[in-house]
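Quick note —
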Amino acid sequence: FEKKTAEEIANCKMGNWVVNNWFSALIIVVWLGINIFLFVYYYIFYNIQDQFFYTRQVIGSALPWARAPAACLNFNCMLILLPVCRNLLSFLRGSCGCCRRTIRKQLDKNITFHKLVAYMIALHTAVHTIAHLFNLERFNDSRQGKASNLSSILSALGDKPEESWVNPIRSNDTTPTYVAFTTIAGLTGVIITLCLILIITSSTETIRRSYYEVFWYTHHLFIIFFAGLVFHGAGRIVRSQTAQSMKVHDFDDCYQDPEEWGKIDNCTIPQFAGGEPMTWKWVLGPMILYVFERLLRLWRSLQKVVITKTVIHPSKVLEIQMKKKGFKMEVGQYIFINCPSISQLEWHPFTLTSAPEEDYFSVHVRSVGDWTEAMYDTFQKNMPRLCVDGPFGTASEDVFKYETSVLVGAGIGVTPFASILKSVWYKFQNSDSRLKTQKIYFYWICRETGAFAWFADLLSSLELQMEEQGKASFVSYKLFLTGWDNTHTEHIMVHFDKDTDVITGLKQKTYYGRPNWEQEFSAIANAHSRSVVGVFLCGPPALGQTLETCCTRFSNVGPRKVQFYFNKENF
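Predicted structure written out below.
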């Protein structure tokens, strides 16, 4: 690369970031813009509209502070379910096959957007809740005559049959806490807030990885959350002066003499009514869509799964080969597996390691948690019944859409690339002319030597096949061992002159330590200076940040220059 000034490098990085992320940024800007618009619009609406004049006299500025976030909550609760409709995303991925890769990539960020929407819901829930706590205090003070004379008179309205109330507190002897737990709005508000707190706190990275069952069960509190949300506005505690009442009661002329209301013609007693609940109109569509999503997944999960073969690999890795009627897959896709003998309710995602060309589908399960350990132990004793839901699409489906692809797997994260490399083997065996990819770089980073064993056979077959087809350079792979001891070092020193690697038995020797990604990306960029390179990762977030930074740094925004597009597996 030619030397560049610091300013040129900064401009280049900015340009590369725009190329890779402009559509994501556009979506976030539009989403934030809608939230800001809804908040500002409804804040102004409830703060200046005439029909809420008397309501504001009772509870003050807390009214717009409660209603503005409520409008934003409706919008975000409408969105929160859509990113987790996996069948919808798979359908869109197939429908968007002719779209630009920048647009298709957004489907791979569904979980990220789901989290952002959840954080926005939490923010607006906090503002909405705090504002209503102030409202309850002011309603109670007005009812007990502790506030202004006007608010006290307004709070007394409704005690007579011909009057309608504006203050939902109808007793002088109650407390805000009692109202919060005895009214529809208060009780449902407490329930959905508690559900939201449990859902968010159990979704942290630590709990999700170490106590997946806690995350899974608490996340299903969303059912109670949405049920409470739909009924939350049924109490209609926020009331406004009716249109008919405003014709015979002009607040500008009447609010200063509330004692005269009903005694003169142009100042009749004001009448109030609650607004129509709106939340259900926002969330009904996504709720119906999600119900259909779950029904489809239930139907598919009930279909019979035949286990044809199981293999126990080193490092407590269990390979399960299965068949299921009508099952069709693409490279890199994943499925959800349920083992009723372990848990009737728990479903866990696993990437498919088989190729679409094979007559079975398979997964590799590494024993790293309570559920996977139970799965490993169960298969050593007997052959349990499994339920399978899927397959679902991932970023790896686009691997053959790039001229050059870089595959990076960490530990068991190599599984989606097993499917890809197997498919490459079949495509060459069948002389598939539709294969557009010209070069594949494969990196596998692993801590234990035993973890290489189950994958070495596939790489060995691929090596042989590539040589027979005269395509030995089509797949370049590097295996990195990050954990070793003196025994490994001495063994390697004794056998260093062998043609094959002493650990894997492959022609490609194993590297020790971690890759120098800047050096690797620089070499790829030089070798493919006019190519579009897809980088695919299945591994930890920290590695993802490093690779995404390298993609941005080594891309060139100029026409017919090398461009790296980062893709990461998300479940």
